[in-house]
């Protein structure tokens, strides 16, 4: 195993242990949800099983499993923005100090391997910028 796999396994161990044995705080939930490590794991799972799921769907008379797609106004977007609204003031302080590129990269980390249109990514970036300005004024 390489170092990257070890880090991913430790991430999964920590996440599963928290879910099974402890209460996940909002802060911890955001750490897991916004982590590039989680994105890497999801991407590997997607690549490994994408063709298997596709073949299974064809055998089962093309039963469609709804695909996750991010749009700021769909159920995925509402879930993400709800979670982001609950971030602590220190996180918003950090975001407010970022430049546009850093905020865009964070938005990409939030979305991970989920499908999205560039316009929707930009809406999320705008949301983060606006929300961070609002939260640090409070």
Question: What does this protein structure show overall?
Answer:
The chain has 138 residues and is mainly α. 74% of the residues lie in helices and 3% in strands. The protein has seven helices and two strands; from the N terminus they run αααβαααβα. The protein has a two-stranded parallel ribbon. α1 crosses α3, α5 packs across α7 and α6 crosses α7. The longest helix has 24 residues. The chain is globular and about 50 Å long.
Write the layout of secondary structure elements.
Elements: H1 3-21, H2 26-33, H3 36-59, E1 69-70, H4 75-85, H5 89-96, H6 100-111, E2 115-116, H7 118-137
Parallel strand pairs: 1-2
Q: Give the oligomeric state.
A: single chain
Beta-strand proportion:
under 5%
Low-confidence stretches: none
State the major sheet: 2 strands, parallel
Structure class: mainly alpha
Number of helices: 7
Please tell me the overall pLDDT: 86
Order of helices and strands: HHHEHHHEH
Instruction: Identify the overall geometry.
Output: globular
Number of strands: 2
Instruction: Calculate Rg over CA atoms.
Output: 17 Å
Distance linking N and C termini: 47 Å
- Largest beta sheet: strand ordering: 1-2
Helix content: over 70%
């Amino acid at each position: 195993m390489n170092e990257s796999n070890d880090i991913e396994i430790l991430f999964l161990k920590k996440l599963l242990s928290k879910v099974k044995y402890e209460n996940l705080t909002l802060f911890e939930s955001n750490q897991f949800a916004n982590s590039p490590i989680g994105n890497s794991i999801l991407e590997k799972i997607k690549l490994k099983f994408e063709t298997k799921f596709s073949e299974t769907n064809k055998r089962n008379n093309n039963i469609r499993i709804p695909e996750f797609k991010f749009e700021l106004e769909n159920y995925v977007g509402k879930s993400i923005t709800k979670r982001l609204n609950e971030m602590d003031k220190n996180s918003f302080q950090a975001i407010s100090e970022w430049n546009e590129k850093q905020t865009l990269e964070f938005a990409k980390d939030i979305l991970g391997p989920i499908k999205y249109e560039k316009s929707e990514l930009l809406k999320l970036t705008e949301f983060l910028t606006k929300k961070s300005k609002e939260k640090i004024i409070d």
